[in-house]
Amino acid sequence: LEGVLQMMQTRIAALQGTVDRVKIVDPYNKIVARTAQLAKLQAACDLLRRIIRILYLSKRLQGQLQGGSREITKAAQSLNELDYLSQGVDLSGIEVIENDLLFIGRARLEVESQAKRLLEQGMETQNPTQVGTALQVFYNLGSLKETISCVVDGYRVSLEENVSSALDVKMLTQPLQASTRGGPGRAAMPTPGNTPAFRAALWTNMEKLMDEICAGCGQVQHLQKVLTKKRDPVTHVCFIDEIAKVRTNIFKILISASTFLKQAFEGEYPKLLRLYNDLWKRLQQYSQSIQSNVTSSGNADITPELPPGQDDTQDAFMVKKQDYDPEKTLKDTLQPYESAYLSKSLSRLFDPINLVFPPGGRNPPSSDELDSIIKTIASELNVASVDPSLSLAVARNVAKTVQLFGVKSEQLLSTQGEASQVIGPLTDGQRRNVAVVNSLHRLSQSVLKVLCGLSSFPVTAEQTIRATLETIQDLMGNAVQPLLKSVEDSIEAIIITMHLEDFAGPLSGKPEVPCSLYMKELQGFVARIMNDYFRTFECVDFIYDSTETIAQRAIQVFIRNATLLRPLGEGGKMRLAADFAQMELAVGPLCRRVSDLGKSYRLLRSFRPLLFQTSEHMANSPAVGDIVPYSSILHFLFTRAPPELKSPHQRAEWSVARYSQWLDDHPAEKDRLVLIRGALEAYVQSVRAREGKEFAAVYPIMLQLLQKAMATAQ
After folding, report:
1. Which of the four pLDDT bands, split at 50, 70 and 90, describes residue 525?
2. Of 406, 468, 474, 597, which residue has the fewest beta carbons closer than 10 angstroms?
3. Closest listed residue to residue 413, CA positions, set 396, 435, 392, 397
4. Is the pTM of this model over 0.70?
């Protein structure tokens, strides 16, 4: 080990001796000196190049400044390049460019000042060429974004100040307090928000405020249009966002601190909404006119160095983005006032109804009271017509009002037995029902008249009110239904008494055949009912629509019972024919014209000639099956058959009244024909049981007609 260490020491000593003989310090020092010299030469060359370029650009800038506004964009471009040359380099103390640097500083201030004046002038006069030139200057100077932000912030601050000033309660109440200041010892009470003078001053300020907002929006919108044409959309300033935020914040702050303003805006919300709508329309008109101006100016008028935008049609006032609706944002600031206004509107609509329907009251409202209700409805709808959405909301309130009127009126109706009596004069309950129906009718007609008088009323709002008026019609129908049902039952009871009269007699020698007693009673009853009961209703068309149904039913019941008369002689036929003629006179008071009864009238007219035709002609009549049902003809043919051929109700041992009820319960022709077929089959069985030689002459005709009817009914 000692030998190895000795050998290593010897070699290390030899290496040190060799290193001492090699000298590298001087070359290293020379390299360091040359490197520093080269760096200084490069810096000097770069500085010289900058100085030469600055001298050249300074000279060119002098010429550009002499060119005025025509060369201002080129001057801005030169200044931008000069700024680039001055970045990262200390040029102070260089005598050759010292004066040029001072000139460049003054030139920059002058160019910026000219560009600002040009921008302000272009925005005021809506000149896209001037605005585009100014924006090009700021873009070349590298301060476009800062300048646009400064301009928009200036308008925003100005609008905030205008809003604060317009809604300052102290300023609004100062003239009023000065005019109402009394003598010593008399305290001046604060002016409430519903004072006419206060509200007049407020709305005057609001109109001025909307003009100021519209003017500011128009100028910034013009700026945005030019930017949209010449800038990337990332740098756009959506001014409507700022406006909406300003209005929301300012309104909330001021109104939360002032009950007067809240009362004024809630009480006259439609006027505030109209101002908003007018503002929005004016902004859209501004946008359209600016768009046309910018488009017509073309790229030749607006400096083309700016890169064009990706979407030239994007607009804050015209195009609605998926995630942002500027108009909705603008109107959302009014939501608290709209809710309060609608609540007060509903209260104003309900108040007159609650007054005319006091608890325990027994009478419907008078004409004057009803006019007051209609005037309130008309006033609310007219005031709300400034906006479709508000019209729809108020229309819903009106619908609730009409429903409340209907509920209150329904509580007055008499539903006891006296409401349906038709024997004596009108009872107190019936008079009250008539008054309620007349009141409902006047309300319905008056509301319809109000709707017809409204111009540009939304269809949806009108449908909302009309749907509620249909419920009023239903209520009117329910109110008169007991009386109508009683009249219908009484008419049917009178008609069915024809079976108590004798229609089996032969022809008499008298030339004139008087009508039957039941027909005289029917005519007298209908005339009395119309005069004593229905003439007191003012809703003539509504009553006729109801009584025409009674008339149609009366004709059907009359023909049904006429076909069931047995036996029927020749004299009975003549009297029955006279009854057919008198039936038209009997139901005449129940309708406008008897011919308006439609199918029932045609049935009455078509059946009368069949009374005197033979069975064969009757079965082959073209009216049978089309106008006159097969079952009615078959019923009538039973009257020409012998007693052995019993009618369906005689076979079942039913009374005529019970059979008539069965026919009402089975309106299908097939069911009636099946019952008639059973009567004919029973007759055949009876003939065979007694070993008869032949059937009645009318039987084959009835069988053939029945088969034809069954084939048709399939």
Report:
1. very high
2. 474
3. 435
4. no
Each residue's pLDDT tens digit, 364-418 = 999 999 999 999 999 999 888 878 888 999 999 999 999 999 999 999 998 888 8
| 159/276 same-domain check | yes
SS3 27: helix
Cα–Cα distances (Å) from 339 to 167, 266, 493, in that order, read 21, 9, 59
Token duo for residue 612? 């005197």
Could you say which of 612, 633, 665 is where a domain stops? 612
Q: Give the residues across from 326 on adjacent strands.
A: none
- The domain total for the chain is 5
The Cα 153–Cα 668 span in angstroms is 82
Residue 223, domain member (yes or no)? yes
Residue of 558, 562, 600 lying closest to 583 (CA atoms): 558
Q: Please provide the DSSP assignment of 564-632 as one string.
A: T--S--HHHHHHHHHHHHHHHHHHGGGSS-GGGGTHHHHHHHHHGGGGGS-HHHHHT-TTBTTTB-HHH
The C-alpha atoms of residue 676 and residue 649 are separated, in whole angstroms, by 9
Say which residue the tokens 């300052």 belong to: 168
Q: Which structural domain, as residue segments, surrounds residue 661?
A: 623-713
Q: Are residues 154 and 119 in the same domain?
A: no
Whole-number Å distance between alpha carbons of 139 and 77 = 9
Instruction: Give yes or no: residues 161 and 24 share one domain.
Output: no
Q: How far apart are CA 563 and CA 580, in angstroms?
A: 12
- Is position 483 within any domain? no
Long-range Cβ contacts of 650-655 (<8 Å, 24+ apart): 650/566, 651/678, 651/679, 651/682
602 and 627 together in one domain: no
Burial class (CB in 10 A: 0-12, 13-18, 19+), 586: buried
Same domain, 608 and 633: no
For the stretch 156-209, pLDDT in tens is: 777 767 666 666 666 666 654 544 444 444 444 444 445 676 667 666 766 676
Please, how many CA atoms are within 13 Å of residue 414, restricted to the half-sphere of its CB? 20
Domain stop point among 563, 593, 612:
612
Which tokens is 338 given? Answer: 């709209």
Amino acid at 572: G
Q: Closest Cα to residue 397, out of 458, 342, 471, 468?
A: 342
For residue 567, give every residue at least 6 positions away whose Cβ sits within 8 Å of its Cβ, in sequence order, or none: 503, 504, 639
Residues 43 and 124 in one domain: yes
Residue tagged 């490197």 (tokens): 35
CA distances from residue 148 to 56, 225, 440, 503 in whole angstroms, order as listed:
31, 13, 64, 106
Residue 663 within any structural domain of the chain: yes
Q: How far apart are CA 702 and CA 632, in angstroms?
A: 12
Q: Do residues 156 and 284 share a domain? A: yes
Average pLDDT along the chain: 79
Question: What is the Cα–Cα distance from 548 to 556, expressed in whole angstroms?
Answer: 12
Question: What would you report as the CA-atom Rg of the chain, rounded to the nearest whole angstrom?
Answer: 51
Residue 352 lies in a domain: no
Residue 50 contacts by C-beta under 8 Å, 6 or more apart in sequence? Answer: 85, 89, 91
